[in-house]
Amino acid sequence: MEKVVFGFFVLLAATLNFGFVIGNLSDTAEHSVYELFAAVTISLIATVLKFGDRTQLGAVHLATSLVADLQLVAAVIVWVFATQIVGTGLTPSSMASVVSLAAGALLANLVSVTLLVIETVTFHRG
């Protein structure tokens, strides 16, 4: 059951991230703050689930997850900075920065999903 939960959160993190990134890079109407929040939350949960695996593949899984977390948190910081601190709101330039950072996280999530598929395909019951 733990492998199902692990796989669920890895795939959910990737799909939420993809859902946020898809769309016009600078169009603020196409990128929801709620979807970004969900992507960050699920990515952090996926990271916690990756702790404890002492294998080399587990270390790479954790590294990809930490990269995705870092990128998504940076995207949130840019969003908050633009809307709350500077007060200019989400300009096309700041939105492009947010989406670009989230796209970097998506790449890390795709690496993690690829590793998960490779691990599943090469698994042998002993």
3D architecture notes:
This protein has one domain (2-121). 78% of the residues lie in helices and 0% in strands. It is built from 4 helices and no strands. The protein starts with a helix and ends in a 5-residue tail after the last helix. The mean pLDDT is 92.
Can you tag this structure with a few keywords?
mainly alpha, 126 residues, single chain
Question: What is the structure about, briefly put?
Answer:
The chain has 126 residues and is mostly helical. The chain is 78% helix and 0% strand.
Average pLDDT level = 92
Shape: elongated
| C-alpha Rg (nearest Å) | 16 Å
Helix content: over 70%
Instruction: Write the element-wise H/E pattern from the N-terminal end onward.
Output: HHHH
Beta-strand content bin: under 5%
Biggest sheet character: none
Number of β-strand runs: 0
Distance between the termini: 18 Å
Any low-confidence stretches, pLDDT <50, length ≥5? none
- Domains counted in the coordinates: how many? 1
Count of DSSP helices?
4
Structural class: mainly alpha
Describe the protein's topology:
Elements: H1 2-21, H2 33-50, H3 56-85, H4 92-121
